[in-house]
Amino acid sequence: MTTYERYQAAKAIYREMGVDTDAAIEAVKKIPISMHCWQGDDVLGFLTPDVALSGGIQTTGNYPGRARTAEELRRDMDFAMKMIPGKHRVNLHAIYADTDEKVELTDLEPRHFATWVDWAKERGLGLDFNPTCFSHPMAASGFTISSPDKTVRDFWVKHCQASRKISEYFGKSLGTKSVMNLWFPDGYKDIPVDREAPRYRMMTALDEVLSVPVDPKYHIDALESKVFGIGAESYTVGSHEFSYGYAMSRGIAYCLDAGHFHPTEVISDKISSVLLYTKELLLHVSRPVRWDSDHVVILDDELNAIAQALVRTNLVERTHIGLDYFDASINRVAAWVIGTRNMCKALLKAYLEPTETLKKIEVEGDYTTRLALVEELKSYPFGAVWDYYCEQMGVPVRDAWLADVKQYEKDVLSQR
Question: Closest Cα to residue 93, out of 154, 146, 170, 30?
């Protein structure tokens, strides 16, 4: 059977359940995933690539082919996106400025990212942004924007203010809002005496960051929380309660990172609560293995649950989906392809549910039927629908992409 014939057979099976597979495919086509550039070079960037990673961030492995320049990174991302159905976005950190200048983080300007904008414009992509508040001498104490040293605080405030202008430039140049996420590694390794003072300093510093006017037509602010990090095991300034409270009170977006909570917590259960009180939500989808390890995203129960939380209650349009993982132990281009395709798969699976029927059954209290149908859906021919979607979008079907990536590794990556 051809891919189309298998799709037609699957379409008939889903129709019996009241699911329109064509509509599901059209819905997924419209959802951009923000692909994180830092998977391609192990979060080193180009401003200070020789500075060791800090802020509790670690990459493991030394697989050959790491991108060393912005040009190599863009080439790798171009190739990866040819393997992924849909039109997506690219997420940049400040350290990925493409310039020959020796420039400090506080002095970054839109012109330092002009080549990224030109590249994105040619491809019809949106760009998102992040100030880089780690891997820098001014972050050596473990504190940035909440530091007791005003000189340090002012440095990071100025960097974040500059970053908002760069994000605004992205949105204005590309015609699609740029989401800028604020994350700070600030915290104590051991138990602090004063838990309030660093949070007060962070709050007032963030207010300074947001005081710089930017046009909301082009830019969205988001604040990310974290429960702990390496070197900040006992206390994190930007905890969940701090970050969520700040986002709600200042009217900005909140960022939920899949690895930034206790191991028994899942962000899929938090989405519906957060969006009752905030207008927009940013997701950093990763795979924590016992801690915030940022493993490559796989199609596991939690990824499916994240997609279901968005689709079942119509929260997709208020949510910005970004990926945040990095693995240097495997082919980095393959890591992008695997993780992004899996996010797309999870969304498609969620749209292939008879959501309204299931909701009606739930309200009626027929939990037996609810459980039976949800479980039976797991063995429905989703794969045939996914294969057809890939074929329609002109990208490799099933594992055919792997041969292309292996050839790219042989021709390009292995030569670095």
Answer: 170
Asked, for residue 385, whether it belongs to a domain, the answer is no
> Which DSSP string do the residues of 185-200 spell out, in sequence order?
--EESS--S-SHHHHH
b/e 194-203 (16+ beta carbons within 10 angstroms → b):
eeeebbebbb
Determine, yes or no, domain membership for 269. yes
DSSP per-residue string spanning 36-70? EGGGGTTT--SSSTTSPP-TT-------S----SH
CATH no. for residue 63? 3.20.20.150
Contact 102, 47 (CB under 8 A): no
What are the DSSP calls for 299-343, one per residue? S-HHHHHHHHHHHTTT-GGGEEEEE----SSS-HHHHHHHHHHHH
| Catalytic residue ranges | 183, 224, 226, 257, 260, 284, 292, 294, 324
Query: CA dihedral in degrees (259, 254, 334, 410; nearest 10)?
Result: -110
> What does the alpha-carbon distance between residue 125 and residue 167 come to, in Å, rounded to a whole number?
14
User: What is the distance between the alpha carbons of residues 134 and 278, in angstroms, rounded to a whole number?
Assistant: 27
Residue 336 lies in a domain: yes
Residue with tokens 């942004």: 129
Question: Rounded distance, CA 400 to CA 411, Å?
Answer: 18
Tens of pLDDT, residue by residue over 89-124, are 999 999 999 999 999 999 999 999 999 999 999 999
User: What is the DSSP track for 96-165?
Assistant: G---SS---GGG--GGGGHHHHHHHHHHT-EEEEE---SSSGGGTTS-STT-SSHHHHHHHHHHHHHHHH
Q: How many domains does the chain have?
A: 1
pLDDT tens column, 21-40: 999 999 999 999 999 999 99
370 located within any domain = no
Q: Residue 299 sits in which domain range?
A: 32-353
- Nearest of 56, 182, 55 to residue 131 by alpha carbon: 182
Q: Is 299 exposed, middle or buried (0-12, 13-18, 19+ CB in 10 A)?
A: middle
Q: The tokens 């889903």 sit on which residue? A: 14
Rounded to an integer, what is the distance from CA 371 to the centroid of its chain? 31
43 pLDDT band (50/70/90 cuts)? confident
